[in-house]
Design goal:
Elements lengths: L3 E7 L1 H4 L52 E3 L5 H12 L17 E2 L5 E5 L2 H8 L3 H13 L9 H24 L2 E7 L1
Antiparallel strand pairs: 1-2, 1-5, 3-4, 4-5
Helix pairs in contact: 3-5, 4-5
Length: about 180
């Protein structure tokens, strides 16, 4: 299955409503149960057909209820490195209070977590222009703590991620929300 990561924006009161099991994207309800066949071999030899019960379809789940985007694999460690590159906080410092520290919530199986991203990261990424975002993506890809690779496809993937995170950061800043990271193993 791999590592699933979703980034989302929420206020302090909204974060309490985000289930650690699903993150910001609601889980669709299960499909309605099908009626079981009765009589004979798998119900093929019935004397009279029984009426099929009417089952209402579950409500549609359209997407996140908060501003969010899914990003496979950019976890707390990697976002901490981005934070370091962008804000200048030394990566790996013990006093660093970013998402690489203790998660704010976790599930009972310790396989899903929610991390709060630093407000300084939100504000710094929200004001990036396209040229600065491209340069940041190249530095991030080249850093040996990340990939140590400047392959054009890798740099473009990080540029796309930074663009998504920048839009989310702008939305969060404008609406008084903070950024969060949901991780699922």
């Amino acid at each position: 299955m791999g590592l699933l990561t979703d980034y989302f924006a929420a206020t302090a009161s909204e974060i309490d409503g985000v289930p650690v099991e699903d993150g910001p994207f609601p889980t669709p309800p299960p499909p309605p149960a099908r009626p079981k066949a009765s009589g004979g071999l798998f119900g093929m030899f019935r004397s009279r057909p029984k009426p099929v019960p009417v089952v209402e379809a579950p409500p549609a789940v359209e997407g996140p209820t908060l501003p969010a985007f899914a990003s496979k694999g950019i976890d707390a460690h990697r976002i901490a490195l981005l934070d370091s590159l962008l804000t200048g906080i030394p990566f790996g410092e013990e006093e660093w209070d970013g998402p690489a520290t203790t998660p704010i919530r976790r599930d009972s199986e310790d396989s899903r977590w929610i991390f709060a991203l630093r407000r300084e990261l939100r504000d710094a990424i929200a004001v990036l222009d396209d040229n600065a975002a491209s340069a940041l993506a190249a530095r991030w890809a080249a850093d040996t703590d990340w990939m140590g690779d400047t392959d054009p496809e890798s740099v473009q993937a990080l540029r796309d991620f930074i663009g998504d995170l920048r839009e989310l950061a702008r939305t969060a800043a404008e609406s008084g929300r903070d950024l969060y990271l949901w991780v699922c193993l």
